[in-house]
Amino acid sequence: KSYGGHYIVKEGAPISKYGGYSKTSWSNSGGYGDGGYNKPLKYTGYGHHLAKGRCSERLMAPMNSHLKCIDQNSCTATCLASYTFPTGESEINVICHEGRWVIQGTYDTTIPSCSPVCLPSCENGGVCSSPNLCFCSGNFYGR
Known about the structure:
Blueprint: E1 2-3, E2 6-7, E3 25-27, E4 31-34, E5 37-39, E6 43-44, E7 50-51, E8 65-71, E9 74-79, E10 83-84, E11 91-97, E12 100-103, E13 115-116, E14 127-130, E15 133-135
């Protein structure tokens, strides 16, 4: 059931489906309690509603980016200036799901590197090797 954009799992639901959380007692304030402390279960994603869980491996920043982690389960990777992810975005959110880092809203565990952007784009088979610098192929030359 959705509460303010987050999904709450009812007590007794299969534990493996929700990232291994311990469900001891339901609290009316939106979570499960353990020893008097509320531990809300929050779900994110675009139709997938992935449970956040603890990842044992440290998340490394993708190439040509920096990483800012909000907590042990949620980080944002931001590309350096003049770099983007393959989707054209300069920022992606990564969450821990069932012990593995995934791109938020997907089950994709491959976190891509940021690639340089060339404006205008490289032509005639050229490859953008660093921001606004094309590596030309064959008998071509230029910027």
